[in-house]
Design a protein that fits this description.
Blueprint: E1 18-19, E2 26-28, H1 43-65, H2 71-77, H3 82-110, H4 112-131, H5 136-150, H6 152-164, H7 167-198, H8 202-222, H9 228-243, E3 247-249, H10 257-274, H11 276-296, H12 299-303, H13 313-319, H14 321-334, H15 336-348, H16 362-381, H17 386-415, H18 419-464, H19 467-481
Helix pairs in contact: 1-3, 1-6, 1-7, 1-8, 2-3, 3-4, 3-5, 3-6, 3-10, 3-18, 4-5, 4-6, 4-8, 6-7, 6-18, 7-13, 7-14, 7-15, 7-17, 10-11, 10-18, 11-17, 11-18, 11-19, 14-17, 16-17, 16-18, 17-18
């Protein structure tokens, strides 16, 4: 296992099997090429884990937007206003962000698999009372709680991938996984539009019940624990039962359980508010998600039968494929280059790997995001042909993926063992902003029009566009100045 080479640093030492030190307890650790070490699993075994958690990461964001084509139908059925129904999306997305604050550190205490299975089982079951909601209050309440439990795939996916893949291999795999949280809101309205048009809004949630239950069953059957301390704890217990004597895990934290738990629960917020780079990138991601959900919730008003372009519900759903196409183009052609550049820069600097080597490609997103938003804003404002407006969303999707992917890989490389908490720190901010901003975006667009309204988001992203360049050159100095003990 290489350490700090062009092939990527293996953050775990993995050098000891049984050793003794002044603690007198035998130390349990992975040996080189240990088959139980997730980094040494067969590629097929790793990809099965990735596939299951990626599907979880698709389904919860899918649920966030899948019912949006039926907002008017829900409002009529539940005798309420469309604005109140939008509150069901806000509650879901906000709790989708709050969930990782708790679920990510819990996975670093109890292991990944247990959290995935418990939380996603509850998420699947909560789709049933959502489908049966008798009023808008029940709809909002149940949706909000389900958002919390559904966040488990987003909370722990990055950490799980970090468990299994060396840094030099990680970005490409992570790119495909990250499609989930982005494709979910993109595909949701398309699928939801078909269901609402041919069945009813309640069948959106019966559909989610079926596919979430299926994914949960796959998890029980095929998902393996990947968190090294949890695997080693199981190994330690087996040795103590079979051989007697006392053992301990390498680098074991011997603090009392509740002390460790409280410390782990504080970790994401400590990372968010003490690390300027994480906070800046989290704000940027929050702006992106706020922009995305603001556009998605207004596509019906822009493209629908009462909007500028007079599309049917199904046709409006197809508009969401614009950013989806950008996602796929980026993941296929650009994201793999993150590893290429990282390995090249590591080799160029004598084998010393740094998190900042993940950031160069973020500059692509820094340019594309404001350009695509200005493009969309003013082509819609002047009612230019619909194809021109949709084309801008392709470049928006492409820019979004580059920024999110480089930022998440930066978090993982910077915090390694606590990657899930670092990612959760960014996720909470972006989800809360992504849930709240659309509540005000519609009023903004009505007051100033889509031209200046969407341009507001473009100007904000433009102000943050120098961040990747600044952090590439000064990031190490900033990290050292704000170092914390986790």
């Amino acid at each position: 296992m290489s350490d700090g080479t062009a092939n990527g640093a293996h953050e775990r030492t993995g050098l000891l099997s049984f050793t003794e030190d002044d603690d007198s307890r035998k130390v349990v650790d992975f040996t080189d090429w240990d088959e139980e070490d997730p980094r040494n699993w067969a590629k097929s075994r790793k990809l099965i884990n990735v596939g299951i958690i990626a599907l979880m990461a698709v389904l919860s964001p899918l649920a966030s937007s899948m019912f949006t084509p039926g907002i008017a139908q829900i409002a009529q059925d539940l005798n309420t206003s469309s604005d109140q129904v939008v509150g069901a999306t806000t509650g879901f997305v906000v709790f989708l962000g709050i969930g990782p604050l708790i679920l990510a550190p819990l996975s670093e205490t109890f292991g990944r698999r247990k959290l995935y299975l418990i939380c996603f089982s509850i998420f699947a079951l909560l789709q049933i009372p959502t489908a049966l909601s008798p009023n808008v209050g029940t709809l909002i309440g149940v949706r909000s709680v389900s958002g919390f439990f559904g966040s488990v795939g987003i909370a722990n996916g990055g950490g799980t991938i970090s468990d299994m893949f060396h840094p030099s291999q990680r970005a490409g795999i992570f790119g495909w996984y990250l499609l989930g949280p982005l494709l979910g809101p993109t595909l949701g309205p398309l699928l939801g539009g078909l269901i609402v048009q041919h069945l009813s809004w309640r069948w959106v949630f019966w559909f989610l019940t079926i596919i979430c239950t299926f994914n949960t069953i796959l998890g029980f059957l095929f998902l393996k624990e990947s968190y090294a301390p949890t695997i080693l704890e199981t190994r330690k217990q087996k040795y103590e039962e079979s051989e007697g004597g006392k053992f301990r895990i390498a680098n074991q934290d011997d603090r009392p359980f509740w002390t460790k738990l409280i410390s782990s629960m504080q970790r994401p917020l400590r990372i968010l508010f003490t690390q300027p780079i994480v906070l800046t990138m989290a704000v940027w991601q929050a702006i992106l998600f706020g922009t995305t959900y603001s556009l998605y919730t207004n596509f019906e008003a822009i493209y629908g039968s009462n909007g500028y372009y007079g599309f049917s519900t199904t046709q409006v759903g197809l508009v969401y494929l614009g950013p989806g196409l950008g996602f796929f183009i980026c993941v296929w052609f650009i994201v793999p280059k993150i590893d290429t550049i990282y390995n090249h820069l590591t080799k160029k600097h004598g084998g010393e790997a740094k998190p900042e080597y993940r950031l160069p490609l973020a500059n692509i997103g820094a340019v594309l995001i404001p350009i695509s938003l200005f493009w969309f804003a003013w082509t819609v404002e002047y009612k230019v042909h619909w194809a021109v407006t949709v084309l801008s969303t392709v470049f928006f999707g492409l820019g979004q993926i580059t920024i999110l992917n480089t930022a998440q890989n930066y978090y993982i490389d910077s915090f390694q063992k606590y990657a899930a908490s670092a990612i959760a720190a960014g996720a909470v901010f972006r989800s809360i902003v992504g849930g709240i901003v659309p509540l005000f975006a519609t009023q903004l667009f009505q007051q100033v029009g889509y031209g200046w309204g969407v341009s507001t988001f473009a100007f904000t992203s433009l102000a943050l566009s120098p961040a990747p360049l600044l952090f590439f050159y000064y990031g190490e100095r900033i990290r050292e100045a704000f170092a914390i003990d986790l």
